[in-house]
């Protein structure tokens, strides 16, 4: 029986919900812990730098493993990467939580759990982004990617509040929340996502690596610039949140739910902007480049001004403006990168993007710890300069790529061309 338009709409909605749950849960891995880092530091009697490693030792393994996850998702199946990744993510959280209950000095085991969670996170949001690129096309793709980025942002909005609420039970309750969230998401991906079939002949390792080499040789300038912009935006976002979390407690003695709500304000601005941007950019790639440059400037200018501001309300307003800038940048980068290559190569290209995003998050808190010790002025001017540099590079180097063919690949696609040449050689030898 043929599906009606209503049936297709329901399938599409369920697919979007399932895909959106993955980045939402992934972002909780860091954002939910930021409000409790000062408490963790006190309870475990560790330094501020050691507390920042709770973020870093999640994000670094994720950044390293993401390209491998992308390769496996291109070669085999995206769902079969995402689902085990969510399970590993859950187990890492469970290990960290149990460590606090069982050991007098649990820090090392908590870090082991965080590393496991990072490895699991490698197979979540970046692969979900590639899967959305496979399932949706054209304007529907930009909307789907906007929803995924907005879901990522929503996770950032909810996570400080959720982290604070869970800490009212006990500070380490956040670790036990991960299994409760990951298992339903894994089931949703399994049941609600119908993954398009790939051309398996084009997925041999030699063809794949050759295609990857050609892609980066041809596109490296704008791709690396886009990667740099995404990493810079998230480095600044998580670094500023880390700074704000400590500022609220140390200077203003604000803790608990109020602290979580304040941390959520700039994140809500980012999430709302991400959704609106993703829903409206459609296939207007020149507009995307304009919004990337504009967004990086909106990050840079308020943070530069924040160097000279002491009023807490004005500072929060400037951080909201910076959040809006981040919300302009990320959906546009998502759309440009996922549309730059064909389906057979999309996983690895988006995974490298996901990798640098994670690494940006990873170095945020430790670098901001160091910058905070130098001076507030140096900290804000440094990150404002980084955002200005990213805006300038984006204006100069990001070009508008042509839309790449969807599966099955067109005769002139890279993977198909490589396959044809190899078959011709074998035929000649025979």
Describe it for me?
The chain has 430 residues and is mainly alpha-helical. The chain has a single domain (12-429), classed as Growth Hormone, Chain: A. Helices cover 82% and strands 0% of the residues. The chain contains 15 helices and no strands. The chain has helices at residues 5-31, 37-44, 48-75, 79-102, 107-121, 125-135, 138-167, 173-192, 205-250, 256-281, 285-306, 312-338, 343-374, 376-397, 414-429. The model is unreliable at 406-419 (pLDDT under 50).
Quote the CATH topology.
Growth Hormone, Chain: A
Structural classification: mainly alpha
Which oligomeric form is depicted? single chain
Number of domains: 1
Top keywords for this entry?
mainly alpha, 430 residues, single chain, Growth Hormone, Chain: A, 82% helix
SSE arrangement:
Blueprint (H helix, E strand, L loop, with lengths): L4 H27 L5 H8 L3 H28 L3 H24 L4 H15 L3 H11 L2 H30 L5 H20 L12 H46 L5 H26 L3 H22 L5 H27 L4 H32 L1 H22 L16 H16 L1
Helix pairs in contact: 1-6, 1-7, 1-8, 2-3, 3-5, 3-13, 4-5, 4-8, 6-7, 6-13, 7-10, 7-12, 9-12, 9-13, 9-14, 9-15, 10-12, 11-12, 11-14
